Amino acid sequence: MSIRIKELISGVEYRVIQGTTETVVMEIVYDSRKTKSGSMFVCIKGYQADGHDYIEEAARRGAVAIVVQQSYDWKKDRLPEQITVISVPDTRIALAKIAAAFYRYPAKEMQIIGVTGTKGKTTTTYMIREGLRQTGHKTGLIGTIEVNADGAEIGRVQAETHTTPESLELQRYLRVMADAGCDSVVMEVSSQALKMHRVDGIHFKAAVFTNLGEDHIGPGEHADMQEYLECKRKLFLQTEFAAGNQNDVLLEEVWAQTICRKVRYMVRAGEGDDQNTQTADYVAEQIEHINLQEELGITCNVSGNVSGRLTLSMPGQYNISNGLAAMAVLKEMGVPDAVIFETLREVQVPGRMEQIKLPILTGYRILVDYAHNAMSLKNSLKTLRNYQPKRIVVIFGCGGNRSKSRRMAMGETAGRYADQVIVTTDNPRYEDPEAIMKEIEIGLLKTNVYYTMIADRKEAVYYAIEHAQSGDMILIAGKGHENYQEIRGIRYPMDDKELVRECMQMLL
């Protein structure tokens, strides 16, 4: 693919420092290591590195154009005069617009649906995607688990750093989906994506707000709760229609000063919810838990814009909330009520409170969940408690190169909501696994829970199964769908579900 610079930057505020906008560009990059002859290198600043420090490397590798921040002192880089240098107010905003132009504005060819919130994004996107597919829509999916063009996987997002791809990859994925015949795309939209302008210029047909919790505040994320909230709001300035969780006290603040059409959904869990129920468009109540040997689920009555009995083949009241969000969007997209209920009954999400089918009847259950912070772990453990297990045994660790306070919080949460805790290794990255476990232990010591520390994750799973009792629920938390363990920059194959199967075979 080739395109002149002036076509790429037609929607960008810019100044030409040197060269000409008639130069032909063959590809766009923001990683100097990927620069080739004919590339345009856009210098973006991240938390770990600044692209402006690699301009000379990009030039040596064959870049024909460089896009820099206007505050950058470009004179210190002695670039050949044939290289075009473009100065812009914000290179991230420019990258989003340049990427859209380079891939011929694929989002304009499809209906884009975005889901944002601290929790529930992945499950809600899967629910919406399946509902649309059931009514004949070829639907793409972009999120934590996979990037999928109506059933064909075309990529993966690096979930430990990104929930939503950088704008360049995002636009490339959208082009692949459009060319594959997709008419709709459902995507997770993180607050970081909104802050970093990854979805700038994309018009959303519909958007969902699931909830907002103090989970992404700190170095490398958001400065405070107000910034976090304001980033979430940006999505609702780019959409026609919005569905929001009325159980969240921050909903109206997130929606402040937005003019999109709105509907509200809520789970009515008590008498104090009566007043909110009157203003909600989708209401769930009369909740019952489904506890069968092969299935943990939940069911409830739904009233409002859609009426009927909603049943989900996954546990958790929060999944009812996710189901209502999906229901509101699917209703807006013209999906018949009967199809909505049928679809939600069947949806399963990899690594999200996923019950593992065991080779024999054991009397205990093993579940895998992505819960990797205190808020999500608390939700998962409280959910299991509703099914009245004899004991809840949780196995988890914490990722390296992350906040130490989160580790203590996860330890304390596990200690307060589980009956037994097995601390192990997650993705230690460049940290000492034993040191991470010790920080988790600080939180555990604030509780009276019985705990064991086993660094090897497979050994931890084996220990839990070997000591399991009839009626137990064993939750392996933190990795969910992930099929690797990252140690010192290397990803080694590891899948919690596979670990369970291997351990069961060893014990049989």
What does this structure look like?
This protein has 508 residues and is of the alpha/beta class. It has an eleven-stranded mixed sheet with strand order 11-10-9-12-8-13-14-15-16-17-18, sandwiched between helices. Strands 19-20-24-21-22-23 form a six-stranded mixed sheet, with helices on both faces. It is globular. It starts with a strand and ends with a helix. The model has no long low-confidence stretch (mean pLDDT 92).
Characteristic key phrases:
508 residues, alpha/beta, eleven-stranded mixed β-sheet, six-stranded mixed β-sheet, 16 helices, 26 strands, 32% helix, globular
Present the secondary structure layout.
Blueprint: E1 3-4, H1 5-8, E2 15-18, E3 24-25, E4 27-29, E5 39-42, H2 55-60, E6 65-69, E7 84-88, H3 91-102, E8 111-116, H4 121-134, E9 139-142, E10 147-149, E11 152-155, H5 167-179, E12 184-188, H6 191-195, E13 204-209, H7 225-235, E14 239-245, H8 251-255, E15 261-267, H9 274-279, E16 282-292, E17 295-304, E18 308-312, H10 317-332, H11 337-346, E19 354-355, E20 365-369, H12 374-385, E21 392-396, H13 404-417, E22 420-423, H14 433-444, E23 450-453, H15 457-466, E24 473-477, E25 484-487, E26 490-493, H16 496-507
Parallel strand pairs: 4-5, 5-6, 6-7, 8-12, 8-13, 9-12, 13-14, 14-15, 15-16, 20-24, 21-22, 21-24, 22-23
Antiparallel strand pairs: 1-3, 2-7, 9-10, 10-11, 16-17, 17-18, 19-20, 25-26
Helix pairs in contact: 3-5, 4-10, 4-11, 10-11, 12-13, 13-14, 15-16
